[in-house]
Design brief:
Length: about 375
């Protein structure tokens, strides 16, 4: 089956009139890698995918596939596999005929077409459904057919445009793993575009976060979640608490930040700013605990409960600090059952569970 190729984008820019949708982006995608381009609506992620596919021309810059310049090539000359959100299956063709279509266009011998179609049908677990028509299939089955059609001609690169957007939540979660397993099995270089953070974290080897046509950060899912580089990434990937403060002490092993109410918190010194620099400390809700007394954790903060939200396995607490900063905490149901709205509670966390990021007044 397909073997992936390296993709290199060099200072790619795309204008629509005077609007710059893609702003001088450079990005390398490694052979066999699953990379997700993640961002909000209008971030430029779909425009970038269209430049890679050849559906739009770059205004400036270049795109290379295995060191071959494909910048000026038409989409059909790039030989790239593509799966669209609406699957784009031919309703008058059977499943097998849909999958065979790219091979028929390439004038592959009929006996080889049959063999390759059956091979990918087996791979997507639809070996007995080749004679059905798209309208007879579920959404998940239609998506499998679209993937099979996109990989049957052994493309060097597979592009997925919001591939799970049309599915319900449970099916979407199942298909995330199925697509990842297929991609790993055939080793094809894959680029997926989505606005769904959970989808990106589940499926990707690396994630490229975009905003306003630019790349904010490219990292593994773990690094992106645990070490966001700025306020936009921190707030876009999952829930996070950002508390503004100022670095007041820094040594080899740890640093201290004074919060707005003069509470001081200590954290590991890596990546911290010089003394007197304004920063955000960043804390994920699941890393904050209810404390019985101030010495129970390295860092504690007094807050007032504003809201309790039952989530089944846990309770989400919305709280406010003395300096009017909102905080979100996730705690076990048993720990939060007796808490009342308006009650003051002590939150605690360790230095290992927080990082600092550059202070920005507004992430938008």
């Amino acid at each position: 089956m397909a073997k992936g190729m390296d993709l290199s984008i060099r200072k790619a820019t795309k204008y629509y009139g005077s609007f710059k949708a893609v702003d001088s982006i450079s990005l390398d995608v490694r052979k066999g890698e699953f990379l997700t381009i993640l961002g909000p609506s209008g971030s430029g992620k779909t425009s970038l995918l269209k430049l890679i596919a050849g559906f739009e021309e770059v205004s400036s810059g270049a795109i290379y596939l295995n060191d071959q310049d494909i910048t000026k090539k038409k989409p059909y000359e790039r030989d790239i596999g593509m799966v669209f959100q609406n699957y784009a299956l031919f309703p008058h063709m059977t499943v097998a005929e849909n999958i065979a279509y790219p091979l028929t266009l390439r004038k592959v011998p009929k006996h080889e077409i049959r063999e390759r179609v059956q091979r990918v049908l087996d791979m997507v677990h639809m070996e007995h459904l080749g004679s059905r028509y798209p309208k007879q299939l579920s959404g998940g089955q239609q998506q499998r057919v679209a993937i099979a059609r996109a990989i049957v001609f052994n493309p060097p690169l597979l592009l997925l445009d919001e591939p799970l957007g049309a599915l319900d939540k449970n099916l979407r979660e199942r298909m995330q793993l199925e697509i990842k397993h297929i991609q790993e099995k055939i080793g094809i270089t894959t680029i997926s575009v989505t606005h769904d953070q959970e989808e990106a974290l589940t499926m990707s080897d690396r994630i490229c976060v975009m905003n306003h046509g630019r790349i904010e950060q490219v990292s593994s899912p773990e690094e992106l979640y645990q070490l966001p580089c700025n306020r936009f990434v921190a707030e876009f990937i999952g829930e996070i608490n950002l508390l503004g403060g100022e670095v007041t002490k820094r040594d080899r092993d740890s640093s201290v930040v004074r919060l707005l109410d003069d509470t001081s918190v200590v954290f590991y010194a890596h990546g911290t700013k010089p003394e007197q620099e304004k920063v955000f400390i960043a804390l994920r809700p699941e890393n904050i605990h209810l404390a019985r007394e101030s010495g129970e954790f390295e860092n504690t903060l007094l807050v007032q409960v504003q809201e309790k939200i039952y989530l089944g396995e846990s309770i989400k607490l919305k709280a406010k600090t003395a300096f009017d900063q909102e905080m979100t905490v996730r705690v076990p149901v048993a720990n939060a059952a007796q808490l009342a709205i308006g009650q003051e509670i002590l939150l605690g966390w360790s230095r290992a569970d927080m990082i600092t990021i550059p202070y920005e007044a507004d992430a938008s």
